[in-house]
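User: Please write out a complete single-protein record containing the residue sequence and its fold in token form, without commentary.

AI:
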Amino acid sequence: MSKFKLDEIDHQILDILIENARTPFTDIAKKLLVSAGTIHVRVKKMEEEGVIKGSTLTVDYDKMNYTFIAYVGIFVENSSNNQKVIEALKKIPEVTVAHLTTGKFAIFCKIRAIDTKHAKDIIFSIDNIPGVLRTETSISLEEIINDKKRLMHAIFDGYRV
């Protein structure tokens, strides 16, 4: 399978869509001085190649009073329980992200809560999932990096560690 190559126009399209996935193709075309058809064809090609997978809407949970963020590392009794624990986590709406991991934790997740009491209740409900041995929680004091563009720019510029 050959690697799909992006050019400068593709990169600029991605840059605009990362900022706002709802930007009309006509606006992108005007900004990049190409036709809207060109934008449409290129976006369609990037979707077909899997470079673009859908579009997202960013919800400001702070505006809904879900200002408390914590990360919960989950120790699972044994790996055969992972899928059952994951299914139980999917039923807790405040678990907004979960990763199956190697290392210290079997599963690592992000939770959002209204306050510390609410977070405690969520963590206790995670602790009560059959197969969970225990959890370790870290409270987020402040999100300092949430940059969806930086890595894409580095990849496009040929950045290598």
